[in-house]
Every structure is written in structure tokens, then in C-alpha cells.
Amino acid sequence: MRGISLLLIGATIASCTTTVGPPTRSAQGQQEFDRLVAGKVAGPPQSCLATFNTNDMVVIDDETVAFRQGANRVYVNHLQSGCNGIASGFNALVTRQSGASSLCRGDIAESRNLTSHLTTGSCVFGDFIPYTRRG
Fold first, then answer.
1. pTM (2 decimals)?
2. Is 87 left (phi over 0), alpha (psi -120 to 50) or beta?
């Protein structure tokens, strides 16, 4: 009986793990991503981004957003589980921050329909990957 219990616990834990790979993008989303990171080099992931850097957000696809910081730096974030419909323009991304001065990995965002204002989904921010122009 104990063996069956351990097997069930192991199967439950294994079913909770997912392999995170690069997001599947539309051609338009890939072009936007390429345009934003052109001539820039990826730096080490950061767990938080100061809120003053979050004013210029670009939606690349339902799983990826970018925050522009001038012409020389952009922070790319791969949302965990995606916020359905934000790339279509029918839904907006509404963030909930854990701290007052930064947006961090683990913070929750909701997708809300722009017409009905109903929540259509939610997702979690991952690491913020800075892409900086070398010069």
C-alpha cells in the first residue's frame, strides 16, 4: 500500500512540472521581437524591473511582453501560462505588483476585455531579460 502511495505522489509531482521552451510566435510577433532586440545583446535575467521602466510596454504575443527603456535597452518578459488575447488588441494587460516600486517575477497580471472589462485570464511574470545595444 505504501508503494502505491509513493507512486501516486511521484506521478502528481511529475504532472506539475512543465518544460519551458521558447514561445511559439506568429510571423508578426517574431518580426516585432526581432525589431525590438535588433543590434542588442541579452544580459543576465533580472527578477524585478523598476516601475518607472514599465511605462512603455510592447505586447509581442500572448506569452511575451517587452518594456522599452529609451532606444538602447529593452526588457523582455516571457509570461508564464500566457494572457490570452493580449496580442489581438481586444484584451489589455493589467498588472498587480507585489511592491510599490517594482514589477517582479511572480507578480500576477490579468487580461481584461477592453469592451466588457471582464477578466479573461491571468498569467505570472517571469524574469526580465535586458537587451542592451553595444556601443
1. 0.78
2. alpha
